[in-house]
Amino acid sequence: MCCAELRDHVACPRNSPKLPETPETRTLRRRAGAAIMGLMQNRREFLGSLAAAAQAAPKIKTGVIGCGWYGMVDLNAAFRVGGVECVALCDVDNEHLAGAATEVEKLQNRRPLTFKHYRDLLDVAGLQAVIIATPPHWHALPFIDACRRNLDIYCEKPLAYDVREGRAMIDAAKRSKGVVEIGFQRRQAEAIRQAGRYIRDGNAGRIVQVEANIHFQASTPDPTPVPPPPALDWDLWCGPGPKIPYSPAVGHKNWRLEATVGNGHLVDWGIHLIDAARNILGEKTPRIVNASGGIYELKGKITTPDTLTAHFEFGACPLVWRHRIWGAAEWAPEVNNGIFFYGNKETVFVTDDRWIAIPRQKGTKRRVTEIASDAGTLHMADFLDCVRSRRTPSCQPEDAWWSTTAVQLAMISYRTGTTVNWDLQREQISDNPKAARLLKRPYRAPYIHPYAG
Asked: Which of 121, 5, 120 is nearest to 61 (CA)?
C-alpha cells in the first residue's frame, strides 16, 4: 500500500477501494491503526502513522545537494516522515555546510560526510537517494549525473533553468532505474486537491477563464557589488550560468529575483499556482503565451519584473497570471495568493489552506472550506514511499517540465516583447527566431549544456 492510497483512504474511507492484503499492508495497518479506518482525520496523526511504518523498514541513505536553506527544509521533512539517514551533504558555502552538518548530527546522532562538489557526494558508497535543492541553474547537471548512477532523486522546482535543460533531464530520468519526484509540494495541499475534484466533477460548470496571482512585498537587499563572503565559492555558485558580480541582492535566498539565476517571481513562486491550475484543467502546456510588465518600483534593485501580466492560452480556457511584488499585498490579503476558476455555474477560489465556492445565482451563499495541510512533508512522504515501493511518484519530470515550460515561455515573451506560439509536439517556438533562441541558454565554459539537439 502506497502513501497516496493511505492518504486517500484516510480522507474518504467509504469511497476508497479495498486494498490488497500483503505483509506490508498488514504492518502499515497495525502501525497506522485507527487512522486507516478513518477514525483519525488529523494530518499530524496520519504523518505519525507513516513515520512509524517507515521506521520498520531499512533506512534510506540520503544525500543533500544545496543545504543552505531549502535543502534542509526538505531534509527535515524527510526526518519527520522517518526512515532516512543523511549520509552526505554538499554546498559551495563552507559555513552553510558546517551548520547543516551540525544540525543533522543532532537529529540522527551521526555526522554526515561533507563536500563542496556534488560529484564527490554522488560517489559516496551506499548512497541511495539525493535531494537537489540548489538554485535552478544548478539543477540539470547534478540531476543528470544522479540519473546515470540510478539514484532516487527528489529535485526542487522549477525543473530546470531553461526549456532544453528540462528535456535533457526528462531523457536522463527515462534511462535511469531510479525514482524521481519534483518538488511541487502543493500537489499534496488538501484544499487544492478538494477544489480540483470539485471542479473536475463539473460543480462549477464549464470553466471559462482562470486567474492566478501572488502579490507580496519583496525584500530588496543592497544590490551594490561587494566581495563574496570568504566561505562562499562564488565562481562555483555561478556554475554554468554567467558569472555575475556578487551582492547581497543576488546571494543566498535573494537569487530568486535575479534574471540569470532564479528568473523571477512567476518562475520561482508563481509556478506552484500555474502547476495547480494546469493539473486541475487537465492541460499540459499553453499554445500561446503573451506577457508584459516591467520594473517600475524596484528599478536598480532587481532584474526581473516587479509587475507582470501573462496570458496563457490553454486548450481548455485562458489562464491569466498577475503579480505585483510591491505595494499590493495590503489591498485584499485574503486573495493575495491563489487561483480563481470562473465557471458558468460557480466561481471557485483556492489557496493553500482554503477553498471557496461562489454560486453565480443571486441570493446563494458562498461555501468556505478551510483545511490546512503540511504539504511539504506529505510530498516528501510520497517520494520516500515511492523509493520503498518503486511505484510512480505524483510529480514526475515530464509533468514538472510542462509547468516549468509554461512559465519559462512567459519570461521569453516578456524579454522579447513578442507573442510566443508553442508547438508542444515539436517542442519548438513557431515563427519567432528571437524567442526560439532563448529556449536554450549557452553554458559558461568549461561547463557543457546537457541538451545536444
From this structure: 121
Alpha-carbon span 107 to 100, nearest angstrom: 11
Kindly give the pairing relationship between strand 207-214 and strand 318-324.
parallel
Q: Which residues of the chain are in CATH 3.30.360.10 domains?
A: 190-373+402-439
**Long-range residue pairs from 296-301, CB within 8 A, at least 24 positions apart, any chain:** 297/326, 297/327, 298/218, 298/220, 298/325, 298/326, 300/223, 301/220, 301/223, 301/249
Measured distance CA(94)–CA(116) in Å, rounded: 8
pLDDT in tens, 409-434: 999 999 999 999 999 999 999 999 99
Q: Residue 441 carries which DSSP code?
A: P
Please state, in angstroms and rounded to a whole number, the distance separating the CA atoms of residues 147 and 179: 9
Q: Domain 3-187+376-396 in CATH: superfamily?
A: NAD(P)-binding Rossmann-like Domain (3.40.50.720)
Whether residue 260 is predicted with pLDDT greater than 60 in this model: the reply is yes
The x, y and z cell numbers of residue 223, run together, are 544590490
Core vs surface per residue 172-198: b (16+ CB within 10 A) or e? bbeebebbbbbbbbbbbbbbbbebbeb
Q: Say whether pLDDT at 8 is over 60.
A: no
Amino acid of residue 420: V
**pLDDT tens by residue, 240-258:** 999 999 999 999 989 999 9
